[in-house]
Amino acid sequence: MIRTLRLQAAAAILLAIQSYPTWAQRPFLSETQWSDLRDEASGAAPYENLRGLTRLHRVPATSEFDQAANFILERAKEYGLQDVHAEQFPIDGKIHYGLMRSHVAWSVAGARLWQIEPQHTVLGDWSTDPIRLADYSHSADVQAPLVDIGAGTAESDYAGKDVRGKIVLADGVLSRVQRLAVAKYGAAGIVSDMPNQTTAWSGLDTTVVRWGHLDGSLPQGFAFMVSRATAADLRTQMQSGHAVVLGAHVEAEVASGQWTVVTATIPGTDSGAGEIVYSCHLDHQRPGANDNGSGCVTILESARVLNRLIGSGSLKRPSRTLRFIWGPEVEGTMAFLSQHPDIRRSMRADVHMDMVGGDLFKNKSVLHVTETPWSLPTFITDIGNAFAETIRDAAAVYTEDGSHADAAVVENRDGAQGTRNAFFVDETPYAEGSDHDDYDSSTIAVPSLYLRDWPDIYIHTDHDTLEQIDATKLRRVALLGAASGYSFASADAAQAPVVLPFLAAQAQQRLAKGFQRAQRLAQDANLPANEASFEAHNLLAQMLKREQAALRSFGVFTHSNPPELAASVDALKTQAASLDLWISAVAAKRGVRSASAPAWHATAAGARTPTRIGEFGPLTFQNDDVLLDRLGLERVSLIKLLNADFSHLLNAQDRGAIYAYEIVNFVDGNRSVAQIRDAVAGEFGPISLDVVSDYLQACEEAKIIAFK
Hints:
By secondary structure, the chain is an alpha/beta fold. About 45% of the residues lie in helices and about 15% in strands. Helix 5 (about 175-185) links the parallel strand 7 and strand 8 (about 190).
């Protein structure tokens, strides 16, 4: 029976594959174009390119990062891309690019940590394993006892302990340990076993060594990174009464320098039509295979595929230029866009890849097609997700019965070692944490198709190796990226009769799913009935605005106003009206007779209208926090949004940062504070007006916004 059901399921998917390409591809690509892209895409080529990158410790503004940049540059030239060149951007911890303050450069001649007593053991050597030395460590030559300070991030961790001149063992956030242990209490340096990002598999492998970062703005301190197993052994020795003595030698310098960014293009036919950008970040520790060597080599492969097919005439040259950018994460993007305002203004969409090659059964990675934030509604996510589903469905059939290997985009051609796995991919709401944060921010407003793996149990560790990478997945994502970018570059008004019904159907499905969330809000016993009703209706209202704007974005993108657009927008309005009535019925069961805005909606605080002023960009970056820079730690510590204790309505731990990102994005000179509150509440969940108003007040003090 089980076998019969599986065969029936496989048959259903096969039927979908036979018809789905016509539905999912033809609005954007013909079946011939799709087949040409699929057959040209390789997983072996990016895998071999990745082999070269993983030999380099790619910390920004270092010699090995520049070697990696040169590797990409030479490959781009070899693949025939145009205008291939590298640009340098000076950094000194003071220069600004948009809102972002630049960081510093770092050079290392050598570093070694060894245990002297009670046994002699090498614990870390830069020359063989550079991840052992935390970034931005300073020179030192010290032999000193080791003192265990637990996390090392609170004053209580130092009670009764003399750490001056000693080396401390800590597992807290490294920069915080540096500020207390080194800067305040005079420790010579740090040995750290700070844990990695939390996943279901956290702590199971105690041999991994995490990549660490000190605060480059502080004038002293070094840190060596060790595994949890090594740290446990050191703690056991100290608890047994042994005096553990370590020797540390570091030759390193933190100074001014430069970031390197590589860029190249495939020119379009119309210089005024704008550009589609492919982005990734080239930096990270050695080996850094999935994060983010995989993204770098995969957009390089998408570029090779597109240039080859466009050059041969298999694909018509698109009207919009395709641009490819490799640089330091977030920082390189801001520097490049700051120095090229003309290119920034010409960008129409972004394909961003950050970790796209992880083998599900090794590092547990699932690929996510990530939506833009609600402040930037767009049609591009639906196009990218349609291609992802096409590959996913074909791969599902292949794994069931071995048929349709070509459609499954498996990389076992010519002896390549890609897996035969299914394609584990889904569409997820906006998530922060890479260069797409820059592109999606309101003052840049280039919508991103963000492709990312998560979880990845080896992210930021010495286990992020080539062995965790699947060549089949690299090929699939290279195809997904090439097809998406080419579709964006070629989109025009003539496609509206087939594209807009497809997009409208996706929007209607999201509205229907949104109703389920609204229904839960209306029934939430933790909220007063009137408040729950308002939040539920607000969610539907915000979803409708988002979906209608996403449909209209196709008209804006193609400079058209097709008749299908108005009909699609009206259909969404009709659907939302029906859903609203159903929510009113749910609310009525809790005694709510009519939907009304809460009293705070009409307060003076809610009626104020903020507008952005000054430079462009979001407010947080890899090594810079604009509010912290401008207001100082004491003032920032009072911002309610960034201190969860102030609001029980922040619906998840550590959600303050993502609310903050969108609050500023929704500032457009037209929305009031109350309307901004409603927008972020619809996107992420209820939040009080007071918390939003307080955050915007801090932004006004920092001269990021002004109130009309």
